[in-house]
């Protein structure tokens, strides 16, 4: 079902966007945005990208200077392994709330930790400790909280709380956590009908009109959140990462690293009745644990992008066709390979990896009964009324974006997919890594709990 035999050098790619400027009529994606960027969700739940103008990073530099001048030098000091006791942190926050005080910025930013690398439990003292590199932090112009020196996003307590709630102490369930942004069945049916209506009448100078027709026929794409509350920062980050990945894929966002898009690789021969789906999934061989399961280490880069192909029938129903090949497979493979480099430059992808790490850590705590071993009930963190994290507008839908590219013969494909995380799979015996040389246990033993001051919840 080509766009037209006379429109024979056009490739129409459908992704996800919400700005009208993401509807170019040519291939060069002139409207593609650069960093810094963030997201907004309006009161109707419509997901929108927002680009922030900060010429020369003047505003960011001023915020960094202000942060350095006001932040406690101890917490602002760069650390290779900062420790945060979740149990002690809950007690300190409970005490502050009892006095009518809010948690401090240090608490909400988990003392500036930028990566969760270890979980340690100490039954004698009742501590469950997370550990990882840390630094001073600043809120960038998009509202993201990032390291002052590296620009990498810090872990946020609200996201850790969401992960803990997904794996509570009174359950052994191992939920799937994820999101999906996909065209509706009705939209796909209209899309097929629109392509048929073009017949042989389309010409290259109608590209903008055709792009608008394709966009309107598909209509808004639906957002689905699973495993966590949709009105949380955790959910918003997953959706943004998925959204931004698709824009990169179809050539509507230029990534800050050299990364070949699907649009650049797509050629003639694609099935216009098909739909590509791209998913973020973890690398489940990411956990190294001790024999007694009192300590674990998260290893590797953690995130892969995979693809599959679906046949779209005339009525909009989708039929799985197996793994993607060709340009799609090249794009997902290259994206996975470049993920660490991309995450170092584009904070949302580092945030996604942090979410996966926190979810795996929460599953480890639950499945190894560390709540009971530490005699800890996260009563505050598990109570939305006392410790609210469901404070965001839930993303419900996103507009379709179209990129028309003159290259090869006709090709037209919608793009779907999302994020799919089964944290419990990382703890399956087939995926667990051996603690060679007793390295993880030695790290646990070297982490000194004794001598902490009253109310102290983090240390280096």
Helical stretch tally: 13
Cα shape: globular
Mean pLDDT: 84
Give the end-to-end Cα distance, rounded to a whole number of Å: 62 Å
State the strand order across the main sheet. 20-12-13-5-6-4-21
Oligomer: single chain
Strand content: 15-25%
Tally of structural domains: 1
Name the structural class: alpha+beta
| Tally of strands | 21
What Rg, in angstroms, do the CA atoms define? 24 Å
Low-confidence stretches: 1-9, 16-34, 268-272
Fraction of residues in H or I helices: 25-40%
For the sheet with most strands, the description reads: 7 strands, mixed
Description:
Helix content is 31%, strand content 24%. With 460 residues, it is α+β, with helices and mostly antiparallel strands. A hairpin with a 5-residue loop joins strand 2 (37-41) and strand 3 (47-51). Helix 10 (326-345) crosses helix 11 (347-367). The protein has one domain. The protein is globular. It starts with 9 loop residues before the first strand and ends with a strand. The model is unreliable at 1-9, 16-34 and 268-272 (pLDDT under 50). It contains 13 helices and 21 strands. The strands form five sheets. The protein has a seven-stranded mixed sheet, sandwiched between helices. The chain has a seven-stranded mixed sheet with strand order 15-14-11-19-9-10-16, sandwiched between helices. Strands 17-1-18 form a three-stranded mixed sheet, sandwiched between helices. The protein has helices at residues 58-70, 73-76, 86-98, 105-108, 157-166, 185-198, 207-218, 233-249, 262-265, 326-345, 347-367, 370-373, 439-446; strands spanning 10-16, 37-41, 47-51, 79-85, 118-122, 127-134, 137-139, 145-147, 177-182, 221-226, 274-282, 287-289, 295-298, 303-312, 318-323, 397-398, 400-406, 411-413, 415-421, 433-434, 458-459.
């Amino acid at each position: 079902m080509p766009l037209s035999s006379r429109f024979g050098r056009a490739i129409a790619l459908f992704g996800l966007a919400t700005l009208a400027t993401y509807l170019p009529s040519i291939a060069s994606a002139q409207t593609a945005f650069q960093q810094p960027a963030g997201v907004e969700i309006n009161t109707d739940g419509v997901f929108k990208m927002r680009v922030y103008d900060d010429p020369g990073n003047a505003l960011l530099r001023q915020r960094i200077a202000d942060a350095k001048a006001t932040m406690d030098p101890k917490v602002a000091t760069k650390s290779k392994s900062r420790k945060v006791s979740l149990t002690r942190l809950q007690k300190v926050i409970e005490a502050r709330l009892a006095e009518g005080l809010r948690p401090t910025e240090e608490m909400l930013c988990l003392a500036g930790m930028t990566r969760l690398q270890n979980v340690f439990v100490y039954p004698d003292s009742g501590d469950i400790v997370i550990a990882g590199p840390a630094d001073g932090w600043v809120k960038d112009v998009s509202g993201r909280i990032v390291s002052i020196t590296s620009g990498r996003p810090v872990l946020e307590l609200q996201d850790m709380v969401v992960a803990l709630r997904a794996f509570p102490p009174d359950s052994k369930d191992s939920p799937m956590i994820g999101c999906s942004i996909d065209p509706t069945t009705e939209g796909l049916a209209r899309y097929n009908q629109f392509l048929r209506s073009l017949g042989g009448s389309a010409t290259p100078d109608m590209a903008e009109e055709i792009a608008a027709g394709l966009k309107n026929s598909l209509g808004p794409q639906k957002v689905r959140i699973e495993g966590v509350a949709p009105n949380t920062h955790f959910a918003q980050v997953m959706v943004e990462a998925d959204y931004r990945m698709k824009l990169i894929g179809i050539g509507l966002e230029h990534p800050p690293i050299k990364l070949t898009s699907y649009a650049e690789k797509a050629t003639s021969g694609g099935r216009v009745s098909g739909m590509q789906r791209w998913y973020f999934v973890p690398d489940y061989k990411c956990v190294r644990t001790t024999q007694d399961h009192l300590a674990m280490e998260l290893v590797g880069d953690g995130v892969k992008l995979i693809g599959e192909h679906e046949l779209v029938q005339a009525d909009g129903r989708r039929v799985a066709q197996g793994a993607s090949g060709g340009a799609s497979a090249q794009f997902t493979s290259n994206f996975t390979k470049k993920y660490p480099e991309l995450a170092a430059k584009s904070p949302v992808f580092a945030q996604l990896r942090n979410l996966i790490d926190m979810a795996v850590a929460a599953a480890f705590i639950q499945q190894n009964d560390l709540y009971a071993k530490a005699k800890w009930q996260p009563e505050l963190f598990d109570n939305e009324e006392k410790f609210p994290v469901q404070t965001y507008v839930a993303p419900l839908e996103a507009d379709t974006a179209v990129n028309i590219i003159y290259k090869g013969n006709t090709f037209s494909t919608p793009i779907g997919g999302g994020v799919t995380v089964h944290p419990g799979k990382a703890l399956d015996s087939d995926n667990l890594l051996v603690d060679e040389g007793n390295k993880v246990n030695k790290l646990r033993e070297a982490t000194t709990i004794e001598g902490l001051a009253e109310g102290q919840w983090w240390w280096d």
